[in-house]
Amino acid sequence: MAMDTVRKTLWYIESHLEQPVTLDELAAIAGISRFHLSRSFAQAIGRSVTAHLRGRRLSEAARQLVDGAPDILSVALDAGYGSHEAFSRAFRDQFGRTPDDVRAGADLTSLKLVEPILMPDTPITAIETPEIRAVDGLLLAGLRRFFTYEDRAGIPLLWQRFGPHIDNIPGQIKGDAYGVCLKADGDPTDGFDYLAAVPMRSLNDLPDSLVGVRIPPLTFAVFQHQGHVSNIGATCAAAGEWLASERRMKPGVAVMMVEYYPPQFDPRTGLGGCEVWVPVSD
């Protein structure tokens, strides 16, 4: 139970990293009191909830600075600070260096960053037999980024950054959303590309900040995930074990796994249910 509480809290922090977040909100998402959340989180992670949240925001701010952010105030506001001065104090307390120094040096190696934390994915012990579903080709548009298997805890932040685009893309089919694991360029063994996306009628006239992907018609084994989305990794792990035991892996396809989020899924609470699809041979 404690690990489930921590998992939900970490998911909420990552998926709302650039929005105001209070301890009361986190406790409500976890379904326990502030006291019990703070105690469980510190015991599992080794630092308080507020220290972890602050460290994650300042670490992402440091990345923006090194990437050449045009002005420090905009980075400060994104990190939840109302002034350059308050941000600079917190940044110096966290890293021992000023934001100006980090931006000028364009180097993160001297900073002890607070990275997203990946909780272990334990496969669901009793999973329902999947539905075998033929899916027509999909046109998807969204944000795409490479993740190693170790840093995939950063995926909720990608969704948060994609959020403002949803329902504002010309040609979007509103209601559904998809998270697609794709083979990256060169088919590296240490990671994959993840696409946070929505379905489209056409990929013409996409904003420059988004990428379009065509998914060919495929047959999928479809697994239902009814719990909180922070534990979707357990369903993904169980789907992988089923695929291995049934020997139905489809070779030669770029799509490795799909998360399907129907209209009833609530991205704020992480509830509402979703599906995990894995391509299978016919």
Automatic annotation (TrEMBL):
It comes from the Bacteria. SMART domains: AraC_E_bind, HTH_ARAC. GO terms for molecular function: DNA-binding transcription factor activity; sequence-specific DNA binding. Keywords: DNA-binding, Transcription, Transcription regulation. It comes from Kaistia soli DSM 19436. Residues 7-105 form the HTH araC/xylS-type domain. Pfam families: GyrI-like, HTH_18. PROSITE patterns: HTH_ARAC_FAMILY_1, HTH_ARAC_FAMILY_2. This is AraC family transcriptional regulator. Coiled coil: none annotated.
